[in-house]
Amino acid sequence: MKNPDIPALCDLARRAGQEILRIAETPFTVDSKSDDSPVTIADKTADALIRQGLAALFPNIPILSEESAQTAHDIRTTWTRFWLVDPLDGTKEFIKKNGEFTVNIALMEKNSPALGVIHVPTKDTIYYGGRGLGAFRIVGTGAPSPIHTRKPAPGETVLVGASRSHPDPHLDAFLESIPPHRLVIAGSAYKFCLLAQGDIHLYPRFNPTMEWDTAAGQALVEGAGGTLTTPDGDPFPYNKPSLVNGPFLARA
Questions:
Q1: Number of domains present in the structure of the chain
Q2: Which of 82, 117, 203, 210 could share a disulfide with 105, CB 3.0–4.6 Å?
């Protein structure tokens, strides 16, 4: 992979996050999409900013975004590289004003996440990484610092990331199969950041997600030394005819 301009990508994600925070302080309204999921002007504004920025920086790389018109699969199958974007991951958390939302930008190479950038606006923190690139965290205007996943020490309680707004009945059955554990509840792709920096050891997900929910997080976790696979250990598929994800296990 020819590395893109990572500082420019981080700046783009940060600017989208600043717009989201600005809108959070206004009396915004909440609409519903065709699948009944919520959408706000913050989603749409961040989407437009990111798509315009990516098109200016990388005019030859197509963009697939949650909030922009979806491209037909027969066209997407011709893409060897593309951006996969969730301009506001955790819209429910944004609406609740609990701060647990992110901006996700992933560069896909041959239908696999090669680079992921995740911005956490309320923490003024950016995470980025990918296979062969390592993984890094930038707090405020500081320098990038490397981060790594961390397996539990012998006898240590396993820390398991779980979703705040998406209760998962299949999770209970899975948790019965692992050693003593404690749930760490968090919204959005921030759970991938917690895994990448060693604050949790495992993030299982059985409820449906979309490809733009996981791509940047997978790249980050893999850059930090972890994995994201199907529950059976197979590679996690992307650029499918349907962009809905199946279950996954992300782990140190």
A1: 2
A2: 117
